[in-house]
Amino acid sequence: MVEIRLEQLAHAYRRGGAYALRPLDMTWRSGGTYALLGPSGCGKSTMLNIISGLIQPSEGRVLFDGRDVTALETGRRKIAQVFQVPVIYRSMTVGQNLGFPLVCQRLPAQTRRKRVEQIAERLGLGPMLHRPAHSLTADQKQLVSLGRGLVRDDVAAILLDEPLTVIDPQQKFDLRRILKEINAEFGVTMVLVTHDQTEAMTFAEEVVVMNMGEVVQSGSPRALFERPATRHVGSFIGAPAMNFLPADPMGPQVAVAGTGLAMPRPDATEGRFCLGFRPEHARLVREGATMSGIVTRIWFEGLDEILALDHPSGEVRLRAPAGIGLKPGDQAGFVLEDGALRLYRDDRLIA
Amino acid sequence: MRTLYLALKYLAVTLWSAFVIFPFLWMLSTSFKTQNAVTGGATWLPWLQFEPSLAGWRALFGGAGGVNIVKPYLNSVVVTGTASAIALVLGTLAAYGLSRFSFRAGPIRNGDITFFFISQRIMPPIVLAIPFFLMLRWLGLLDSLPGLILVYVAALMPIAVWVMVDFFNTIPRALDEMAWMDGCTPVTTFIRVILPNVLPGLVVAGMFCLIFGWNDFFFAFTLTFTKTQLLPVSIVALNSSVTPWWSLSAAAIVSVAPLAVLAFVVERFLASGGLKGAVR
């Protein structure tokens, strides 16, 4: 359980080549839960491999509790990792799999057995200790991988590299719950890599959004939801995505033409402006609407409906309670909650 | 319908078995024949068509007109066994390296190194006869067991590398990485985590090494004189102006026996699921 600090960390796979990971600084507190979120090839796996020591970064340092481990070999970092495709020692039983890190540490058999039984019990693998590991299902294998991290009481952090990708939806839900519980119980730092925003938002206390080898925004799920730092984050996080409408400076304001959507005008007015808001922050009204348009589509989502409204400035989507009785072709208007509107210049949040 | 299918199946299997077993039975029967029973037209049944004789078998142990093959036999066992073991160990280590690490020397990459190994088997052995002869003479190892073992290791290692590289490539690299993270050293990782997964490969590579080593005549012939003979050479030495089919048959039987046993054991091992779970 350590605090992980990344200092001016960057990586290029070829000397002088393009950055796979652009220079970044980051501190992850001991016992925290973090998620690296981004599309494939955005550098999140590179970052994970640098932390576990499988890749030597071309620039910067990695510190565990203030100690520089950049040059330390993988085996000495006390990192555990759960891979995307379940990896287990298939020539061993479940128990031998769980106990293997302790064998590597040369702990006595007595201690090993006790630890292994304890962890297996916690993960619900108790009855399977003597089964060959290759006979397990995918989600059980992932639990074994997780258990191999937990048996060592000196484990620094558990890295999860898209561990839920190949798991069935129902088991995915259970496994995510177990991960959270384990984190609370053992106080072990966990870093989850994923391209699934729901997974990241529900698991982590801090989500690091990455794109093209760059950290775009890092913050609590709430912050990412309410104040996306770029249009990319706003579109990537939340379903449906955040609404963005082109806006122009008009008098003391920046406003979307033909609507009441407006924000105070900033000092500098060069650049492309747009206003954004979450579909969740809009409320349908009969009179006094800030903006109105023609309903073009309606998606059913259980208790909610998603409405698409057409307006000369662009299409917006709103989340509304189901059964409001609108149908495609109807005119509909909405107001926004106070403080729900965001101003972007050149796709970056400025207010 | 089903009965007919079964009947046809058994008929086919029986015919094929007869086809395969016949030469062995013929060899066995010939090994007990005398010259008259061989040269005077085909004879089949002992005691009825010919009088069985042990002359062919006696010739193998230094009997009249024969060559004592006991010592060459033991030499062959020692040379093939030792060379195969060394080739397997070195070849497996080399293959692991080629599968897991990137090497480069100028334009040469891993694939080229692997091909270099395999190319040793593509080249006709005769090309190597003179270099090997000169090298062994320089080392003072001509006509000796260590000399032969050295040459056989060189000849067998490509087979081991070739087979094992493919097997290692099927093992996901994440397995190595996981073991490193668990605190394993690279050597322990190799022995405790990776090797058990390539057991089928080791069996197959070992079998190839033993077969090629045991059957080699060329190097055994060109690199020895009289002191250190191997089995294939001594069997050829049985030959004379009148081909002694009876003693050659007996010799063929004893030289095929170990490989037949090996094939049987490996087949059992594969069928018993000794490899279960070793392959994804």
Annotated CATH architecture of the largest domain in chain A: 3-Layer(aba) Sandwich
Rg for CA atoms of chain B = 24 Å
Q: What oligomerization state is this entry in?
A: heterodimer
Query: How far apart are the termini of chain A?
Result: 38 Å
Named CATH topology of the largest domain in chain A: Rossmann fold
Task: Give average pLDDT of chain A, whole number.
Answer: 89
Structure notes:
The complex is a heterodimer of chains A (351) and B (280). Chain A is an alpha+beta fold. A six-stranded mixed beta sheet of chain A has the order 6-7-8-3-9-10, sandwiched between helices. Helices cover 24% and strands 34% of the residues of chain A. Chain B is an all-alpha fold. Chain B contains 13 helices and no strands. At the A-B interface, β6 and α2 of A face α8 of B.
Key terms for this structure?
heterodimer, A: 351 residues, Rossmann fold, 6-stranded mixed β-sheet, 6-stranded antiparallel β-sheet, 24% helix, elongated, B: 280 residues, mainly alpha, MetI-like fold, 13 helices
